[in-house]
Amino acid sequence: MISYTGSVYRLIFTDQNATLPVQSPEGRFHHSGQMAIYTSLSPEGCGVAIKRYLTPDDAPRHIVPLEVTLERVVDIRGPSAASAVWQDSRAAGHPAPTWAFSDQAREDDAQALMYSSRSRPDLTHLTLFTTAPDAVRLVGQSISFP
What domain count does the chain have? Predict the structure, then answer.
């Protein structure tokens, strides 16, 4: 594990609280009631990560800067099965293959999981498993999206 202290960015609907977990029951790195906050290390990464999910009638979104102070981060950047399109497995009724990474990280008491973007490996995303105020804080002004 590594430590990570710095800025991350979260793309959310404008009426959402950026420090609260996602409301969806499952995603790339959460399932079965697990909490997750999906972020990127750059505003550009936010746009890349959300591209697949955007629809023309979406409510307005913005990018919110957060400051994180994490001591226990599992780093799986680089070539990895974590880049699999998890939705295909779920559509076939199987667990997402990416859940093995987050389940193991949670079992190891990690605060977050750092991984490369599937479509842009030069970009990095960070999924938080904590909402502790000493670990995740709002900072700065939101950025318009798109």
Answer: 1
